[in-house]
């Protein structure tokens, strides 16, 4: 696996990969890789002949009081994991390569970026959309893979690609979970052993709320109960627990069509997000 840090070298390496006519799948990441990322790489291998992954901890998607400085960085271990899964190229630019002096362009995707994490983290999705558009232009993949754990991010990227006619197919990959249900996330590394146990309440609250809705209970009551359960389990703040339309992410007051139940809550200093599908009874 080649580790590349300069754009011209990346373009040469991508051109060489393309000589055999094989398609290229791309897995963008911020590193601190775990089994969830490896599921993306394995799906990428099913989708294309060659896999390129990127590691870039993108400063523009972090708010002023967020964890940019402490975000886990372990490139050597990440590179070993990607190589063992058969990745051809690791694209690992530094911040000056991604945002050279004078960089002044930002992409805002309205609608799907509003509310949920867009409200809790102002500017976050503009940072994501801008860096993802840049990464797509740099790597020029045929297909790109993103985890459903960041469900709103996936919706923003699908909108970005459709609106800017970007020639890449977006594939969403189901969330990978630990056996107790907690969604895999690089930020789980911040959790103390006690917080890690308490964090199980997040997927449990979602599953119970989804079940209550499917049993015909009121959506509003199920969401309120989930928020109470999270607080009782030790979550310090609950940013949101909401039912949204699975495609448009517009609020859903009743489970009349395919929905997505999304939550974000903070335990100790760690903000966790999760979401599950909720389908109405046939
Ligand atoms: O999901 C992530 O890891 C990041 O938001 C992404 C898509 C790599 C953009 O920085």
How is this structure best described in words?
Helices cover 38% and strands 20% of the residues. The chain is an alpha/beta fold and 282 residues long. It has 2 domains: 2-173, Rossmann fold (3-Layer(aba) Sandwich); 186-272, Pantoate--beta-alanine Ligase, Chain: A,domain 2, CATH 3.30.1300.10. It has a 6-stranded parallel sheet, sandwiched between helices. It has a 3-stranded antiparallel sheet with strand order 7-8-9, covered by helices on one side. It binds pantoate. Pantoate (PAF) binds next to strand 2 and helix 6.
Please name the fourth-level CATH homologous superfamily of the largest domain: HUPs
Mean pLDDT: 97
Please compute the radius of gyration using only Cα atoms. Answer: 19 Å
Q: How do the strands line up in the largest sheet?
A: 1-4-3-2-5-6
What is the number of independent domains?
Answer: 2
Determine the number of helices (DSSP H or I, runs of at least 4 residues).
10
Give a quick account of the main beta sheet: strands, pairing sense, barrel closure.
6 strands, parallel
The CATH architecture of the largest domain: 3-Layer(aba) Sandwich
Could you estimate the helical fraction of the residues in percent? 25-40%
* Shape by Cα distribution: globular
Output the CATH class name of the largest domain. Alpha Beta
Q: Total strand count, please?
A: 9
List the topology elements.
Layout: E1 2-4, H1 7-18, E2 24-29, H2 35-47, E3 50-55, H3 75-84, E4 89-91, H4 95-98, H5 117-120, H6 124-139, E5 143-147, H7 151-163, E6 169-173, H8 193-198, H9 201-214, H10 219-233, E7 237-245, E8 259-267, E9 270-278
Parallel strand pairs: 1-4, 2-3, 2-5, 3-4, 5-6
Antiparallel strand pairs: 7-8, 8-9
The protein binds pantoate.
């Amino acid at each position: 696996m080649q580790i590349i840090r300069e754009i011209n070298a990346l373009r040469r390496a991508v051109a060489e990969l393309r000589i055999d006519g094989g398609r290229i799948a791309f897995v963008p990441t911020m590193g601190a890789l775990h089994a969830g990322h490896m599921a993306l790489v394995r799906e990428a291998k099913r989708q294309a002949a060659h896999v390129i992954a990127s590691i870039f901890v993108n400063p523009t998607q972090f708010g002023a009081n967020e964890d940019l400085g402490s975000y886990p960085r372990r490139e050597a271990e990440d590179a070993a994991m990607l190589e063992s899964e058969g990745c051809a190229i690791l694209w690992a630019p530094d911040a000056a390569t991604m945002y050279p002096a004078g960089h002044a362009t930002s992409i805002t995707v309205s609608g799907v970026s509003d509310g949920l994490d867009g409200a809790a983290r102002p500017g976050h999705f503009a940072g994501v959309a801008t860096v993802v558009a840049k990464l797509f232009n740099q790597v020029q993949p045929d297909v790109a893979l993103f985890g459903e754990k960041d469900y709103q991010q996936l919706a923003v990227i699908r909108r970005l690609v459709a609106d800017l006619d970007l020639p890449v197919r977006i594939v969403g990959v189901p969330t990978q979970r630990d056996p107790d249900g907690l969604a895999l996330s690089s930020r789980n590394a911040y959790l103390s052993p006690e917080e890690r146990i308490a964090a199980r309440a997040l997927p449990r609250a979602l599953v119970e709320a989804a079940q209550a809705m499917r049993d015909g209970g009121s959506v509003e009551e199920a969401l309120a109960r989930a928020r109470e359960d999270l607080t009782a389990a030790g979550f310090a703040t609950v940013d949101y627990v909401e039912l949204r339309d699975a495609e448009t992410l517009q609020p859903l007051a009743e489970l009349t069509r395919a929905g997505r139940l999304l939550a974000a809550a903070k335990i100790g200093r760690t903000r966790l997000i999760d979401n599950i599908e909720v389908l109405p009874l046939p």
